[in-house]
Design a protein that fits this description.
Helix content: 25-40%
Shape: elongated
Number of helices: 2
Distance between the termini: 151 Å
Oligomer: single chain
Structural class: alpha+beta
Largest sheet: 4 strands, antiparallel
Order of helices and strands: HEEEEEEEH
Length: about 170
């Protein structure tokens, strides 16, 4: 009886061993059947960098718009393309819609010109825009403390009207 168990275990072991060998052979032939793909060659493009125009708003002077890009090269498939862009409406358009500046406080009023000025330094430029490093802006001063000559003329008008009423 022990010999039968021994023979049975030996057959199971032989079957498992043969199955293992068969699996190894199958995997090896599958790998051998696959052709090794050459690694993709990195194409050296002779296309230049994209050069982008300024953002042109669809309507008005801010909001959504588009810009055109171009690049040069003998074998470029695409030499022009259009890109969507946005011009923030709160940026100072005076210095370019794609340039944002950090401004100092307004200076004192110049009585000769009746203007006050402040300077701004470049904070951010969108899409590699060509922006000035610093800019200066001016605006009219607020109400100046000058005596108003109109006050006297108004009093005279009122007095003149009173006299006219008295004559009537």
């Amino acid at each position: 009886m022990q010999t039968q168990q021994y023979l049975q275990q030996r057959r199971k072991f032989a079957a498992a061993f043969l199955a293992f060998i068969f699996i190894l052979a199958a995997v090896d032939t599958a790998e051998a059947g696959k052709k090794e793909k050459p690694e993709k060659k990195v194409k050296k493009s002779d296309c230049g960098e994209w050069q982008w125009s300024v953002c042109v708003p669809t309507s008005g002077d801010c909001g959504l718009g588009s810009r055109e890009g171009t690049r040069a090269g003998a074998e470029c498939k695409q030499t022009m393309k259009t890109q969507r862009c946005k011009i923030p409406c709160n940026w100072k358009k005076q210095f370019g819609a794609e340039c944002k500046y950090q401004f100092q406080a307004w200076g004192e009023c110049d009585l000769n010109t009746a203007l006050k000025t402040r300077t701004g330094s470049l904070k951010r430029a969108l899409h590699n825009a060509d922006c000035q490093k610093t800019v200066t802006i001016s605006k009219p001063c607020g109400k100046l403390t000058k005596p108003k000559p109109q006050a006297e003329s108004k009093k005279k008008k009122k007095e003149g009207k009173k006299q006219e009423k008295m004559l009537d």
